[in-house]
Each structure stands twice: as structure tokens, then as C-alpha cells.
Specification:
Length: about 160
């Protein structure tokens, strides 16, 4: 999202309150393989979006605070949309995202058998990008580009 759009959205929200709809120039999406167990879908989603927040600080908002002054961590400034599709859909979306140069996080089936970050990275590094057994990806980018990456996927049910 451009700085100009960010500023406009912030000003709209401040002027009209929290209920003013905001249209973002970018999308944050997670695409999951449709054959995962529920616990796997949740685990994969959490891991994938953590990569976007650290690599793209502009997608993260300000910290939260309740009425009692208790501080909370910041979250994404915009919604995260979750999609699903078969193995071929995820593989094709990954290829499109990489080809377009969009920031992408990957989760492979091998990561279900590892126990820590170093082992996760080693499992991904051991396989070429075209041979990764992807169970999920997260992508951030301009709305139109992300829509093209997701062609064939459906909203998660």
C-alpha cells in the first residue's frame, strides 16, 4: 500500500470512526491445501503469516491497549484472507507468486515432522522450489497481482 493510501485510510478512520470501510491497495492471503486436518490448517496459517509480519513491517499496525491501560501486541493493519485448493492449485499459485516476485512464505509437508526453526529451514533448503510438497503459502502484494496468483482457489470454508 502506498504511503499516500495509508495516510488517507488513517485519516478516514480517524475522521469517521472505526466503522468507516477502508479499501486496501494490497492483499494478505493464505492458501492452504484442502486435504489438511483442522489442527494443521491452523498451525500452517499461524506460521505462514508470521513471516509476512516480520519481513514487511508496513503491514503491521500500532500496538493495542484496553481501557485499563493493559498493553497488547500490534496486529496486521488489514484483513488476512484464507483460501483453499488442491495440491495443484497451491503449487500453481506458488509458481505464480514467485514469478511475480511477490513476498511469499511457504510451508511444506516436511515441516510437520520437524521440531524447530533450524530444522524447518533445512527441510525447505533440501528441496528445489519446483519439488516442494507445499501444504500452504502466504502472499502479500497488490490486489490485482494477488488475485491472479490465487486463480483456481476458493475461500476457505
Amino acid at each position: 500500500m502506498s504511503n499516500e493510501t495509508k495516510n488517507e485510510n488513517d485519516e478516514q478512520a480517524e475522521a469517521g470512526g472505526a466503522d468507516v470501510p477502508v479499501r486496501f491497495d494490497t492483499k494478505i492471503v493464505v492458501l492452504l491445501r484442502d486435504d489438511l486436518e483442522t489442527w494443521q490448517r491452523l498451525n500452517v496459517t499461524a506460521f505462514l503469516v508470521s513471516g509476512l509480519g516480520t519481513a514487511l513491517p508496513e503491514v503491521v499496525g500500532e500496538p493495542y491497549q484496553d481501557a485499563d491501560g493493559t498493553p497488547y501486541l500490534p496486529m496486521f493493519r488489514q484483513p488476512v484472507l484464507v483460501f483453499e485448493g488442491g495440491k495443484e492449485v497451491v503449487t500453481t499459485a506458488h509458481e505464480r507468486a514467485v514469478r511475480r516476485g511477490l513476498p511469499t512464505a511457504v510451508f511444506t509437508s516436511d515441516l510437520f515432522g520437524t521440531g524447530h526453526d533450524r530444522a524447518n529451514r533445512a527441510a525447505v533448503a533440501a528441496v528445489g522450489k519446483d519439488q516442494l510438497d507445499l501444504v500452504g503459502i502466504a502472499v502479500h502484494g497488490p490486489r490485482n497481482s494477488v488475485d491472479k496468483v490465487l486463480k483456481g482457489a476458493r475461500m476457505h470454508r
